[in-house]
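User: Teach me something about this protein's shape.
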Amino acid sequence: MLNAAELLAGQGLSPEAEAFVQAIAGQPDLADRLARMASVFRQRDRRRDSLLLAHAARRLAPGDQRIRVRTEWLLRHEAPLWHFGIIHDRPRNKIYARALQHWVRPGMTVFEIGTGTGLLAMLAVRAGAHHVYTCERRADVAEAAREIVARNGLAERITVIAKDAHAVTLGSDLPARCDLFVAEIVDNTLLGEDVLPLTELARERFLVPDAPLLPQRVSAIGALVAGTDIAESGRMSTAMGFDLTPFNRFSPTELSAGPGGGAARLLSGAVELIGFDLAHDTPALDQPQRLRLVALQAGRAEGVMRWLRLDFGAGIVFENTPPQRSSWFPCIHLLPEARDLAAGDELQLDLQHDRARLYLTPA
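Assistant: First, the predicted structure itself:
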C-alpha cells in the first residue's frame, strides 16, 4: 500500500510541508489530514505544496467522497468545468470531425496540443490517421485521456504525452515531424489559451512544411448590442432611491454575454473585427486598427458583442453566432457610457492586441 512518503518523495515539497508529512505519516486518517493541510497551504498561496498534498490525499483514498469534496478545487485546477461543456457541444464536435475527415490522408501522423479527453485525437484516427501524438500539460488529465483511449481500443494508434507543448522534444516524445496539426486552443476571448504562440511553436518544431492546420484561421466577429441585462451586469445607476453612479469607476471593460449571447439585441450588422491566419506568425498589434460599426436600427448601445469564427478551409467553418448556444460564450466590450443611436449612426472603435488578448475602445 502506498504511503505519503512514497507518494511525495522527490516532488519538491517545501521543508515545512515535508516536516508536516513526516509528523503524520503513521496516522490512520492520513489522507484526510493531507487534504486538510492542502487547503491550509492553498489559503497561504503555497500553490505547489497544496497541489502535491491534495494529489497524495486523493491517491491514498481514491474512493473516499469526503476527500473528493475537500479537494474539489484541485479537480477544477486540473480539469476546469469547460471540459464538460465542450464535449457536449455537438456542432463544435461535428465541425472538427468533418474537418478531420476532409484533411486527413491515409498514413498521416497528427500532432495535437491540448489532449483533454482525447476526443479530437480519436476523431483523427477515425478519419484515417496512422498515428496521433497529443500532448497534455495536466498530468491527471493526461492519465484520464490514456484510459479513455485504451477503453476505446486505440492505445496503439494514439500516444498521450504528459508534457507542456514547450517541453515536448522531437526525436524522443515525437519520433518525427507530423503531417497535420489539430488543436482546440481558443477560449471565449479568442486568444486567451495562447492559440497564436502555440500554433507557431507547432509549426516551427513539430510539423512538416505546409502541414494542414485545423483550424487554419481564427477570427473575432462583432456587432453593436443593446440590452438592459448588459447594463445591469456592468453599470450602476440608482437603487432604493439612492444614486450609486460613483461605483461605476469599477465597471468592467469586458464581460461574458452568457450562453448564446443572453438577451442582448444586435443593433448593427456583424463584421469581422480581426482575423488571424495561423499559417503565419502574428506580431502584437501595437498601433490601433480603426473599426466602424453602423447602427441598422435605433437603440441604446451598451457595448460591442464579439464571438468566434474558426475556419478549417474547404468551406468548413464554425461560428457561435448569437443566439446559437455553444460551449464558447460571446463576450461584451462595455462602452464607457451607453450611447443612444439612430439608424445609420456610426460608432468608431480602436482595436489592438498583445497576442494574448484583444483590446477594443471607442475611438
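Now, about its shape. The chain has three domains: 4-78, 84-214, 217-362. The chain has a mean pLDDT of 93. If you'd like, I can walk through any region in more detail.
User: That's plenty for now, thanks!
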